[in-house]
Specification:
Chains A, B: This is DJ-1/PfpI family protein. Chains A, B: One of its GO terms (biological process) is regulation of DNA-templated transcription. Chains A, B: It comes from Streptomyces triticirhizae. Two copies of one chain form a homodimer. By secondary structure, chain A is α/β, with parallel strands linked by helices. Chain A is built from eleven helices and eleven strands. The radius of gyration of chain A is 20 Å and the shape is globular. The first copy, chain A, starts with 18 loop residues before the first helix and ends with a helix. At the A-B interface, helix 1, helix 2, helix 4, strand 2 and strand 4 of A face helix 1, helix 2, helix 4, strand 2 and strand 4 of B.
């Protein structure tokens, strides 16, 4: 898809307003109306695609903003990776890349979904933000038994502005030696493990900052953490706009997401759902 | 990954408790401890993999629960699809499949991510739940200009228990003729468009139910909608456990996700972030 081949040209309901109008008009402007404005706007200057863009089909838009790498490994948890990817990918000129041990499809813990790693770890030396998602048990165990992967995390971490994790991704950061003696969080069910195994001071908060290390609680907490990161990277106004763009005004129909307030029965059932939904 | 090749067998910290223990013990049980229990549990009876499982590498676990299909099209919005996939994939025996016009990788609106469609639309006749994610402008316009895709949606819809959308996915359902005269929601910026173009009665709620049609607001709202769906499909207790499993106790650092409360400046900036982050 490029702007040159914008299908709106043949669409029955074009709204050929100029882009300036799109950015300043009020209620009449809709996201879909924006399609027309993009089509009518002058084409931006093209730059030469970076090698990985040419190779992978990633897009050619200007990417002078923060460089964000999301690590994928077999058995990662889908939303751990995709929630922050969605938020951070909306920042101006952000370059968000999914990175695997090798390029190619990486399947999630449930086995239901494969996401493509567009880059391999040996192609990536520098990142502004490294994010390590959590995963199913087998996936996390395989990751922490993988010295090459842990070495890469340590190497990239040296130069990051932020090294971050979601859910049991903090177990992987801990196994890489990055969380020893630090305050950090993880999925509620892994709190004791990370404390006893890695000497991490578990904190039952949505996200925890310790220097440039930023860890978040289970799965969905990565979205909240990513909004904080967005503010750090692009300013609070942009972070607030990203939140509005994603209409993140959460209103779950139930109020059952807090482990500290949950019954033991519900905790057991939650763990059983996790275990049974994990591919094996 | 199969249980037969569980890497835990060689892991330095095995915790070989029995699965029964995993399900009934209290604080000492962690998600990672669960790894050992899975490894130690007797292997479940195997069934023959369904043809699409054998072809795609999807997993072999029992799938007698609800069959959920997530439609992917070029330019879909990542979190629209993956938020509900994460929730619904945790339901007992749920069979969640990502479906494209053809099998293969489908890239998101930002161009940053490719997700694999494991099935093609012509392989899928019956679903308990159809979910149509929203997308970038070009992606949605291409989808509503695609009669074959709209025909497939209409055909599958005849037999669904629930036909659902996230964000501008409701524009696609509307273009398929499924929302005419109905109450529905969409991304705040597409509210006027869907009303004026398709005769839909827009409702500014997180999700809106109209018969078996269930639409949700922008992007992140799909997670909230999926929890309601989870309760409908598997009962409220399971839905609550899924919420706890995903630690969905949202606490964004800002309170800027509601368009009705946002300034015009913030709305304009949000629309600009969406436009500029969309691949072109």
């Amino acid at each position: 898809m490029t702007r040159d081949t914008h299908p709106h040209a043949t669409h029955p309901n074009p709204r050929p307003t100029h882009r300036r109008t799109f950015l300043t008009t009020t209620a009449a402007t809709t996201v879909l109306a924006g399609a027309a404005t993009l089509g009518a706007a002058p084409a931006p200057a093209r730059r030469e695609p970076a090698p990985h863009e040419a190779a992978t089909g990633r897009t050619e838009r200007e990417r002078n903003g923060p460089r964000v790498g999301i690590l994928l490994y077999p058995g990662f948890t889908l939303l751990d990776a995709t929630g922050p990817t969605e938020v951070l990918g909306r920042l101006p000129d952000a370059d968000v890349a999914l990175i695997g041990e090798r390029r190619g499809q990486v399947r999630t813990d449930t086995g239901d979904v494969a996401v493509t790693a567009d880059l391999a770890v040996d192609e990536v030396e520098r990142l502004d933000v490294l994010l390590v998602p959590g995963g199913g048990i087998e996936g996390v165990v395989a990751a922490i038994d993988n010295p090459a992967l842990l070495n890469w995390i340590r190497r990239v971490h040296r130069h990051t502005r932020w090294t971050t994790s979601v859910c049991t991704g903090s177990v992987i950061l801990a196994a890489a030696g990055l969380l020893t003696g630090r305050r950090a969080t993880t999925h509620w069910a892994s709190a004791e493990y990370i404390e006893s195994t890695y000497g991490v001071a578990y904190v039952a908060e949505r996200f925890v900052r310790s220097g440039k290390l930023l860890t978040s609680a289970g799965v969905s907490a990565g979205i909240d953490m990513a909004l904080l990161l967005a503010a750090e990277l692009a300013g609070e106004e942009v972070a607030r706009a990203a939140q509005l763009a994603l209409e993140y005004d959460p209103a779950p129909p139930f109020d059952s997401g807090n482990a500290a307030e949950a019954s033991q029965e519900l905790r057991d059932l939650a763990l059983r759902l996790l275990a049974d939904s994990t591919a094996g």
